[in-house]
Amino acid sequence: MTELTLLYSSLFEGDPQEKLARAQMVWKCHGRELLGQAEFVSGVEELLAREKELTSQMRSMEMHHTCSHCGSRPGGGCCSLYMAGETDVIQLLMNMMA
Q1: 50 CB-contact burial (10 Å; exposed 0-12 / middle 13-18 / buried 19+)
Q2: DSSP strand E in 1-98: where?
Q3: What share of the chain is helix, strand, coil (3-state, %, to 5)?
Q4: For residue 82, what is the enclosing H or E element?
Q5: What pTM was estimated for this model as a whole?
Q6: 14-36 per-position pLDDT tens digit
C-alpha cells in the first residue's frame, strides 16, 4: 500500500465508531496546532457560517421538526442510519472543533 492509500483508508474507511476514534486521536494529538493556524481557523469559521445557512434553510422548509422527530427515535430515524456510515474522520474532526 502506498502512503497516500493508507492516508485515505484511515480517513474514509471503517464504521462510524472507528472513524470517531480516529478523529478523537487527531484532535488530541494535533487540535491545538490546527487551531493555531489562521487558514485552518478561517476554514472552520466558513463551515460554521454554512451550517447556519443550512439550519435556516431547513427551518424554512420546516424540516427541523421532521428531522428532530425522526432523530429522537431508536436507531436514529430516517436518514441517521444512512448518514452515520457516510461520515468521515475529517467531518467528525470539524464537528469537534466547531
Answers
A1: exposed
A2: none
A3: 85, 0, 15
A4: helix 77-86
A5: 0.68
A6: 988 899 999 999 999 998 898 89
